[in-house]
Amino acid sequence: MVLHSIGGFLVHKMRDPVLDNTAWLKTYYYYYCYFLCRFLICGSGDSVKVFSTSTEECVHVLEGHTDQVTGVALNPANHLQVYSCSADGTVRLWDFIDGILIKTFIFGYPILSLYVSEKHAGNFQLLALHLPKVPDQEVEAKDMFAVLCDISPNPGSTAFGQGGEYIASALGLRLNVYFFRKQKTYRFSLKATDKKGAKNAFTCVACHPKDDCIATGHEDGKIRLWRNFNQKKEYTYSTQHWHHNAVSSLCFTPEGMHLLSGGVESVLVQWHCEEVNKKDFLPRLGGAISHIAVSSDGQMYCTSHSDNKINIIHCSFKLSAVIQGLVKGNIWTDLVIDSRTKALVMNGRPGHLQFYSLQQDKQLYSLDIVQQEYIYEEGLDQFEVMKAVFDVRGNWLATVEERGRDSDLEFALKLWGFNESAQSLELNTTITAAHQDRITSMCFSPSTETTMLVTAAKDGQFKVWLLGTDSETQKEQASWSCDFVGSYHGLQPTNCCFSSDGSLLAVSFEEVVTVWSSDTWGLLTTLCQPPGPIRELCFGRLSCSKYLACLHLAVTCFLFDKLLEHVFVFRPSEPRPLFTQKAVCEGKVQRCVFAPRAEPLDSCDERFQWLNRSRLYYLTEKMELLSFSTQTEDERILKSRKQLLVDDSVAVTPFYLLLGKHRRQQEEEDKLNFMTNQVSERTQHPQASVAVKEHVLFFFFLLLKIIVLKIVLFSFIQYGTSLEEEWRDTQSKLLEV
Amino acid sequence: MGEFKVHRVRFFDYMPSAIRALAFQPQREKIAVARTSGSVEIFNCADRFFQEKIIPGREQAATEALAWVGDRLFSAGLNGVISEYDLENQKVKYTIDAFGGPMWTIASNQQGTHLAVGCEDGTVKLFEVCEGKIQFEKNLAKQKGRILSLSWHPSGSRIVAGMMDMIRVFNTETGQSVHRLLVERGIGASRSVECVVWGVVYLSDGTIISGDSSGKVKIWDDLTGTLIKSHQVTKWDVLALSVSQDETSVVAGTSEGTVVQFQFLSVVLGQEDKEWVQTRIFKNHTHDVRAVLELGTAVVSGGMDTQFVVRPLLDKIEERGPECVLRKIQFPHRSLVSCAKKAGLLLFQYPGHLELWRLGESDGHGASGSVLPVKRKPEKLLHLKIKGEEHICCSAVSPCGEWIAYSTVASFRLYRLHCDNNNVSITKVSKLPKVLSSANQICFSSDSSKLFAASTCSSVHVVSLSQTVHKFVCTLKPKSGSVQAVHLLAASEDGKWLASANSDREVQIYNLTKMKLHSTVPVYNSGVTAMAIHPTTNNLFMVHADQQVFEYSIEEKKYTDWSRQVQRNGLHYLWLARDTPVTNVTFNPKNPTHIILHDAYMFCIIDQTLPLPDSCSQFYNQLTLRSLPEKDRTKHSHAFKMCKTFKELMFVELMEDQSLVAVERPLVEIAAQLPAPVRQKKFAT
């Protein structure tokens, strides 16, 4: 089986965790782009991806690096080749048209960035910078020498100058310019602050391609243009100021006519080098601009953003294409599956919900919930979507947006209905003061007869909202109104849940679970579950619907130990984990969700049967969306990718196709062989975990319950009738214990 | 340091006038500054930009431009006359009508042989500079539209003139126009408005640089008459241009209050072909920058906000020193306030009138720093308007408060003040001795019996005053034969001594009983900014523009031991780094070892009994001392006790009743009286 990480632009392949537990790969959302007019090449995670600038499709994935790709650069000698460097200490040369690895250079130190100079032709110059010792190395083929010490790890803060004569690098408050011919370094320092409180630290550097002019970006948003920097004293610079926050990236166009700059404001600014006061703006590009690149002919610009997005901009300053990955940002909502589109729904751009297709691994669309202009300013409190819930059929979406702290909390409950004709969600009702205090939980009734929403809030009440035509206003469109307000001894409700037929509503009030009839809204019974407040609440499904699960009566739950980062998969019938996986990622697992598969999988391996009907996706601290998948599935993905490769190849000749097919077949054969080897190895694995006694495991489970701070996930999807029977057994077993 | 009752005087509404033109004299490193009031000031760049001379203005002078020819200073104005200044006696030497209507500009060639003026009627007139006069030579080909700016080619064979919508290049030999360079107008609404070329600069390689009202600095080639490059510097006007001596840097002053620097740099390092590149922007003004100067080591600018700003270019200065500080000169470097110590009166000198105020009284006692209740409010006794067009150049009130004297360039007047209860009346003293036609500085003896008036050639006239007869006693003259005017006078308390300081930096001490020169203080290479004679010891205390202090014993004709100790030890670097000169020295009769002095931002008491601060001690230590226990204070205290409680100080004096008068003129109040600056879009507005 293979672990997949999603949220790059394509499903990200990872090695089998069973075989190799040490090297877990990460998907970074940082893109160092380089591009030609027709192709955009960017590093994503441990692979280099080639996109078509016109169709936004990923054409190739160049795989081979074993760690984060930190930089890509076009080979100046051959524009059909690209260099990539990685933290694994290698530099690889690729033919990106065919997707072939040509050469690998091994350096042995983690490489943080790569710069290529045209004039030092023949063998490329490389500046390898690594943090622990901070020397800076220049490599010609295999021997390297340090050019500059004290280099910022940020790749944007070093740049080759005009014709490769010199290299400019900034760190902190100092700009170093090293001239290769004279082998001399000039250092220019700025004061940390001046009287007006400007923050002068350098953030990025760019060199003019024709003139000897260095542009530097600064923390306070200033851009300085340095000249005469081969003099110790008589150097000079001019200052331009537009950005109100740190300049994160600078880039000159190939002819040196324009300078592009970007920052957290998400506005691309084009400065005219001839007329310094003239500038053009392209606002509202997305998240903070992290990198700017210009195509070698100057026809296209591209900006990569902190929210995992790449904009391709024509030189006339018009947006021509957008490549959007999984939006990176704070996630407050649970991971929700939209049953209509089968898309994963979660927080996207500020104030938006993103619909991310797991099958196609790309963003379908972004729904503007807050419907307010987002202002990029630090510390500004703005509305954010905190909760999102879909009903069973995907016809209704309820969202809660919040702003402010406890004292001045503002929030609104919004209900979105699916418009069949427009095939999109439309805002139906906005309830600005649904409760006195923060909404803690909400759920839709699964019943088919009525469309009902229950919200529980910290003000000690839970409210039932019904869809119906308002008799007074006689509006044609149905809207939502409050039907019932319930409370229990003034306690704060924490969770609410409907039974699968919608007849019963369970609301937990701290330690007490109350069960209400949805017809009469009478309190049927109360269940007390000491000790400690109830964190999660869920009704059983189908045949086990008579059971109500709360916290430790987990059905199929995944415990993510917040400290150890292990994944446990349980089956309702068994108290011991069905599947455990240690150290699935760095950092803590934030949220996870089961997503149904489009077509069920037939896996013979018993251990991975739970993956047959659905897949588990989990989100880590670093906003990486990871998933488990089996080997066979991986093969399929690989195949589809090859297909894509052929489809999008530039020059498809019959000869090429023949060759390509042949190569693929060979690769597949290799793969098969490899797999069989794996299987044989696996069978020899001793199954140690089974030997442990059952009750010991159960205690372990209880112990876990205490240790684990939060059970992240509780949404579950049925796996088949056989499971339910087992589930019943487990209940009785558990009660016995 | 002692406790004083302080009169914080803020009713002196001193309002400096805007700077209109600047001119630099490279040999003597002097800058002439013309203000809109018509006054011309001379600053010495070598002496910490000390304001050496002030030539008072006059009504409707409207000086527009200045030009140096060697040591001679000429100005042209909208009144249509060219004036030459008598810098020794600080007045206009002569004026000559150019007969071309109002004049906008004047420029001299590098050879120093000719002056060119640009007139309203579109003519450029050439004047030959002769000994003691200038002689009209010829008109260059007359053009339509006024001539606003002129610049000579360093060879003197060509001259470039900035006009409306165009620039013309003239051959000075033939007087014919060689080139006509059209300047495009601004875009938008300003398209219908003529583009005014406010400044031109002609470089020796034939490059012409112009600044115009569309906000562009343009670089032209005079061989072909074509535009090489245009820099949009501002949305408003570029008002002034100046080039450095080595022609590698040009600065432009704009209406936004910025000064933009252009440098002649090689675009590709190490190669010969250079280009004019916009580099730094200095923003030290709030209003129009009407005049700029690029001195090579500093950029000097002045404009509507009345400040004279010196911005050093640190990359051109070899070693760091007191020259490396940004200077903003707001106030004149001499006192405009005189004080009748005994009567409690203050005399304020405005350009066109004098004001006499009686200080308020208070009998309250309060804690340090508290505001005392006022028993009697300060009262304006007198508003004395002067006759004639000339502005006042000096004024004084006698210590007893009975006499007021002022002088303009043309006349000297003495008034007697009658003050009985609330009735104030003055009578003009009619029969004055003939020698008192005008004075550069006026001073009264401490018993108000004598009047000292500094006159031409460093002479001082002494006139004895009495109720009825005013008798000319004698004229005191230095032996050096200096022709410079005296700018400071100090009389001793016992009436025996008089000290005078002139622009040649000579300090003479006269014996008033014998009425002859007593001694001359050794000449120091920096101008005297303030001096006073100690009331008990009769030591002359002097402060120079470079912040050095000297104490000279008059009786022994030598520097005192304390003064020599100061010179040996050296002053603290923070004291030497102060950027405004000390403008007044006074003493505390109760505490003879204390000397009180002040500059624009602080007043200071020097305690001669305490040790001098060395370079490692904390200089501004008043707050630290206050936090220390009583016993430790003496160990940490040093001779200089600074007080920065007061805002921009114009005058500090200790009155007879031990109360201190501090005349403040906060800059915000000056700024509030200025016209509104040009509108600029600010971020987030």
TrEMBL record, chain A:
It is found in: Nucleus, Nucleolus. InterPro entries: Beta-prop_WDR75_2nd (IPR057644), WD40/YVTN_repeat-like_dom_sf (IPR015943), WD40_repeat_dom_sf (IPR036322), WD40_rpt (IPR001680), WDR75 (IPR053826). Its main location: nucleus. GO terms for cellular component: small-subunit processome. One of its GO terms (biological process) is positive regulation of transcription by RNA polymerase I. Residues 335-549, 560-623 form the WD repeat-containing protein 75 second beta-propeller domain. Keywords: Membrane, Nucleus, Repeat, Ribosome biogenesis, rRNA processing, Transcription, Transmembrane, Transmembrane helix, WD repeat. GO terms for molecular function: RNA binding. Gene3D superfamilies: YVTN repeat-like/Quinoprotein amine dehydrogenase. It comes from the Eukaryota. The keyword Membrane applies. WD repeats lie at residues 62-104, 195-226, 432-475. The chain crosses the membrane at residues 696-717. Pfam families: Beta-prop_WDR75_1st (PF23869), Beta-prop_WDR75_2nd (PF23769). This is WD repeat domain 75.
